[in-house]
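The instructor's notes for this session suggest beginning with a concrete chain rather than abstract definitions. Hand out the sequence below and ask the class to guess, before any prediction is shown, which regions might be ordered.
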Amino acid sequence: MKIYAHRGSSLLWPENTLLAFNHAHEAGATGFETDLRLSKNGEIILSHDDALHRFGKPQKIISKLAAEEIIHTKISSRDAGLQDHLITLKTLLKAFPNKDYIFDCKISDRQLFESLKQLLDDLKFHNRIWFLTWDAAGDRHVKEIFPGCDFFPRVPRSYAWGVGTLLGLNRLFEPDNTILSLPAYHFGLPVFSARQISSIQSRGKTFVGYLINSEKDARRCRECGINIILTDRPDLFSRTLVEN
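After discussion, reveal the predicted structure:
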């Protein structure tokens, strides 16, 4: 099973920091998922939010600060017990050049995608990357700048498909994307089935279980033949895989 760490080991460590990614690596994560934004001076910064309200720093806004100031900003883990600095994508890629990556592009500014392409070219980086985009402009930039790279369907489309799946209408609203993703359970109800996953895989598509954060979720994924998961707890699943 391939394990992608969502913002690193983000349930235990400060998300999108070297601390989180280091521990995800030590836990055996195959790849990393991370959030991309642009600083005021055009550096690619790893941050889910533009304004850092969640971390008690409402005055810190990624798009309005230079990278030099951003990387000196510390954020806390969810329990506030640990802290680490925000980092640039360049820092992460240089630290972990052999990981696979999912880039969640939080903005659709073409500059982000052009800067990303330049960075990957400069580092002679591999092409084992997927994209998550949030509007048609983001989709278009991926197709133009990263031809051949796949991207996930946007949330509203996935949600409609998920509802159809819950109702037993597995193909209704299924996105055209070659990468698909759903949670294992919704309000306690199993979302996908082994038959559905087999159908998806037989048509040459890739399915990713999202966000798989419990042993119950992992068990469902194994029963349905899913071999790629996105999780906030890669340590939990590396132990589960060893035990099984």
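Then share the key points. DSSP finds nine helices and 15 strands in the chain. The first strand starts at residue 2 and ends at 6.
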